[in-house]
Amino acid sequence: MTKPAAKDATAPVSSETTTAVAVLVSEETGAVASLAAGFVMITGVFGAVIAPLVFKRFNITNDEEKGLALGLSAHAIGTVKAFEISSKCGAYSILAMIVNGIFTAFLLPLCFWLF
After folding, report:
1. Which band of pLDDT confidence, cut at 50, 70 and 90, is reported for residue 10?
2. Nearest by Cα to 101 from 21, 43, 33
């Protein structure tokens, strides 16, 4: 088994944002764009599937909290799940996803440049 190249190891870093932002950020940081997109999709599906169990386990009943959690962790797929809960939950999910995308697009390349 071979060791991953440095550019392959940076692809999961951008997985906490949408696919479009992850592809652009991965190209900017030198990672493989298709690998970053794959990580984003896996993260989104996993988050949307596991979120109801987490909400139930930790007794999270507030739609705003659910929306923020789904938008930050499960991206667009999580937003679809949030709209299944309520329109308010979906709105907060979209807000979280947008803010996360903006911060990721600006701060992640800056961190790679600095360090």
Report:
1. low
2. 21
33-69 burial: b if 16+ Cβ within 10 Å, else e:
bebbbbbbbebbeebbeebeeebeeeeeeebeebbbb
- Token pair, residue 112, equals 């790679």
- Alpha-carbon span 70 to 111, nearest angstrom: 25
Three-state DSSP at 105 gives: helix
Q: CA–CA separation, 85 vs 81, rounded Å?
A: 7
Residue with structure tokens 């990672």? 31
Instruction: Classify residue 30 as left (phi > 0), alpha (psi -120 to 50) or beta.
Output: left
What gap in Å lies between CA 41 and CA 36, rounded to an integer? 9
Q: How many helices (DSSP H) and strands (DSSP E) are in the chain?
A: 5, 0
Q: Quick: pLDDT tens for 86-104.
A: 999 999 999 999 998 888 8
Q: State pTM to two decimals.
A: 0.80
